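for the writeup, i need someone to sanity check this before i put it in the appendix. the sequnce is what the collaborator sent (i think, or maybe the updated version? ugh). structure was predicted straight from it, no edits. if anything looks off just tell me and ill rerun, i have time this weekend
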Amino acid sequence: MPILEQLATREDLVTRVHVLTGEDADAARRADKVPIARSECTYYSPVAETAERTIEALRESDERLRNRPEELMLWDWASTYWEAEPGNPNGGGTVLLGVAWYDRAFFDDRRGAWFGAMHQRIYQQIGIPLEAITVTHWQLITD
């Protein structure tokens, strides 16, 4: 049986759905900026309503970010994805997103912002506990 047919019949597969377009999928948005680092973030929600609030908060944040002058664009959202948790009767799953960083000093100063007081208030309003969040940072190595 071909691989795609095998995959189509499995019930344990996780499907990743693209829900918000970020700089990684929009060449005009990235323009000539070169990311020097990337943060990968995951937000687990046991229920669909919390995941929906998370995605809506990210969409609103992206709209605010897009209204900033270009010279203040030291970071940008990468695309956001949704992965439903197989077998979760409450529609829960994981929201995944990335952050592209364009300025080394800004990255060094702000990479921990996800854990700051402002973000913790946002997580509390949305209903996501800190233990349901992961953030991993990656830096570009130049030769």
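The chain is about 30% helix and 30% strand. The longest helix spans residues 48-66.
thx in advance!!
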